[in-house]
Design a protein that fits this description.
By secondary structure, the chain is an alpha+beta fold. Helix content is 31%, strand content 23%. It folds into three domains: 59 residues; 109 residues, Outer membrane lipoprotein wza fold like (Roll); 79 residues, 2-Layer Sandwich (wza like fold), CATH 3.30.1950.
Length: 264
């Protein structure tokens, strides 16, 4: 479409003066549209009244869901029975640990103890429930529970992949920092998180530029979240530096002169 317009205008040019005027107009337009506006890219802004303002919301611990996989480990003085009930008790490497699936009825089955309902509970609450059950067999037992599927997924034309939730309160900024080659191409005004909740699938769309995003409901990434990142429309014709801009200008001038010579 743009090249069609250029060809059309070239055919209308009849004098050197008109040629020079058209070339200068074209280069000025290219200059002002080819560089990024860093106010649109800057994070943690609180001086731009056009950006949304998000309300603060208390952080909620992750709650176990159906089809989650969990690890549990026993701490007790009776190591023999501990290893019979929990093969994970002697291992600290998750690669060799045994996970247990949460069934559709919200329960898990572990050796010697079955039908323990843990879906809808936090990891700490689930550990307490399992501990109370196992205390019937081992009075001095302490139970630790962790999530096996502790990852989030990124989709989009910029990057795709699965990444670990390596800390309890992983922020959207930390999550995006784990993705390579985003730079200025990401559409910061349109980030989407798809999250499964007890009330169904929740779709959160937000802008990561305003400072008010901190501690809002959009700020933290939970296990099993899907983060959709799309490419900024402007990135298709923007350049990152004046060196890149000069390259575009040089190419444009060469193209202009070649077409003009062909036209003559």
């Amino acid at each position: 479409m743009q090249f069609t317009m250029i060809f059309y205008k070239i055919r209308k040019v009849r004098s050197n003066k008109n040629i020079f005027s058209f070339l200068m107009y074209f280069l000025c337009a290219l200059f002002f549209t080819s560089c990024y506006n860093y106010k649109k890219l800057r994070l943690l802004q609180d001086d731009d009244k056009t950006l949304p303002i998000y309300e603060k919301q208390d952080f909620e611990d992750y709650k176990i869901k159906v089809n989650d996989d969990v690890y549990f480990r026993l701490i007790t003085s009776d190591e023999t029975i501990s290893k019979l009930i929990s093969p994970n008790s002697g291992s600290s490497n998750s690669q060799y640990m045994v996970s247990y699936r949460v069934y559709t009825d919200s329960t898990i089955d572990i050796p010697f103890v079955s039908h323990i309902k843990i879906a809808g509970l936090t990891l700490k609450e689930a550990a307490s429930v399992i501990q109370n059950k196992i205390k019937e067999l081992i009075p001095d037992v302490e139970v630790k529970v962790s999530l096996a599927n502790k990852t989030f997924t990124v989709i989009g034309d910029i990057a795709t992949g699965t990444f670990p939730v390596y800390r309890n309160r992983l922020t959207i900024y930390q999550a995006l920092a784990m993705i390579r080659d985003m730079g200025e191409t990401i559409d910061k005004a349109n980030i989407t998180i798809i999250r499964e909740t007890k009330n169904g699938t929740q779709i959160l769309k937000f802008d990561i530029r305003p400072k008010s995003i901190i501690e809002s409901k959009y700020y933290y990434i939970y296990p099993n979240d899907i983060v959709y990142i799309r490419r900024s429309f402007e990135s298709f014709y923007k350049v990152n530096s004046y060196t890149g801009l000069l390259g575009i200008v040089n190419f444009s001038i060469s193209l202009f002169l070649t077409v003009l010579n062909y036209n003559n």
